[in-house]
Amino acid sequence: MDTSHAPAPEKEVRVTTAPQAAAWVPDNDPTRPWSEAAELAADWVWQRSKIEGKSPLLVTNTFQNARGMGALEEIAKSGGQATPQGKKRFSHGPVLAYVPVERTLELALDLARGYSLVVVETDVFPLSEWAAAVGAVNLLDGSTSASALDADVSEALDRAIFFGGNNGWTGSHEKRHARTVLSDLAVAGRIDADAAASYAMAHDVSDKGARRLRTLIESLGR
Q1: pLDDT score of 4 more than 90
Q2: 196: helix, coil or strand?
Q3: Looking at the structure, do residues 128 and 37 belong to the same domain, yes or no?
């Protein structure tokens, strides 16, 4: 079939760079108070703020997320609080992203461009592969996380991202290519959909693209 005149897939333009420094607090202990995780992240971002000469910014899913959390409220008062629904525009600076979902993480990545970023993880959106890809320091133990993906899994994800990640797999060709390179891994249960979404966002895939990739992998594994 002649596809030379077929319309190009819709582009999802996303321009980001890796943060200057990155850290995270994994959500790996259901008994850990959220205030403790927030304080660890806040201490780190204040240190980076002094180094980078700019007040830190808080990024949350909603404005209510920071209420009652003294460490977060202090940052919001100093540098401001941004949410995906917020209208106010902020300049770039060091960022603390508190329990972000994909859309919120994308906002945090954009606002932290050229500066540092710390993330408090929630199990709603696991971030271990993002943390491994950007070299984020685990603030619980000072380690730098390694990827849990096997080499052939990360290579397959790289191929899928290279071919279709730039436009978030909006086109049929990109979706078909992703299914081709990821199908066997998904059927074998060797590729986790959440891990793939987290990995993709560390490689400049949009939040919408990461969600499409998760849905695609989940459908392949059924």
Answers
A1: no
A2: helix
A3: yes
